[in-house]
Amino acid sequence: MNAFALLFLAFLIGGALAGLVLLRRNVRHVQAHRDAVPAAFAASIPLASHQRAADYTVARARLSGVHIVANAAFVLVLTLGGGLQAVHDAWAAVLAPGGLAHGVALLGALGVLGWLFELPFVLVRTFVIEKKFGFNRMTPRLFVTDTAREAALGALIGLPLLAVVLWLTQSMGERWWLWVWAFWLGFNLLVMLVWPTFIAPLFNNFTPLADAALKARVEALLARCGFRAKGLFVMDGSRRSAHGNAYFTGLGAAKRIVFFDTLLDKLDADEVEAVLAHELGHFRHRHLLRRLAFLAPASLGLLALLGELMQQSWFFTALGMQATDVASALALFMLVLPVFAFPLAPALSHWSRKHEYEADHYAAQQADAGKLVSALVKLYRDNAATLTPDPLYSRFHDSHPPAALRIARLQALQR
Ligand SMILES: [Zn+2]
Description:
This protein is mainly alpha-helical. It contains 16 helices and four strands.
């Protein structure tokens, strides 16, 4: 076993153990605080809701624990266990190994295996946990049609995409990674452009916001914030889940603002305005652009790294492959990248929480901070989000600040 294999194992096992320890800390912390609503929420959240949130958090943590262990085993079987090499050999019986068709087949098969691996977890989450806590609205029939549409979309878009990427790696010489990167960026921009009008409607119905009073409020807020959108829509999120949300999608003039029907059911007009002002805060602070400005050079660096790694035979042998073609390198890279990226999670979470605070700050200027607080309290309560996460777990994983800290800051901003 070479040094890289040992390093990979250390990251794989270390990451899984760290993940389990964090989950365990969180479960203990939530259970220890299960019997008392934190003082700041005592007036607004009943004990029964608080306990339901604790039980929901624990139920999901148990499933996550199983997922962490199973995922480590899955990655191990495919790499050191020779699984990917076996898939490679199986396709080699029908397609010339190293060729474009073989490469697409190998990567496509890896995608299908990954999907099959996730399937039981998705089923338990949706039809056991979400159902038990009253969030699931998905029928088995809708689940099947969703899955069929996702598979068709994945095949229709994913397979040609893979073919182009592999073709670029083989045809563009040493600097292929620059071409793949440019193609990948362009593709992502295209998806952002067409998502709201062509892809999202395959899964949900979008109807123009009909409530005239709310519409006038929202339009006044948009004008105040200098935000131009192509429409205000309500999405039938209630078809699948009772969880509520608001977001905007699209680029440039194609931007749309979308409210989940479940959100509009729960919040009054002032609260909806405050939640939207928070979303506009993300836009005003250019959070999406900043994320892209980080991800674009980072992905270029990763592709350049891949270009280097696939010339090294130790990279393949360390990860259980005898084949050394481009598609195999790409497959291995996608499998092991999350393993090595795990320690970056706290930094990315911290960055995301910083953005949430900035968006809250903006919302407090453009709308009523007190209304954002009352909206958040309703959402924490109705979504059974815990108010008492373990601080270390939260610092590592949470994209949003813990409820108590977030609300304390908003209250300080309230005039
Ligand atoms: Zn936000």
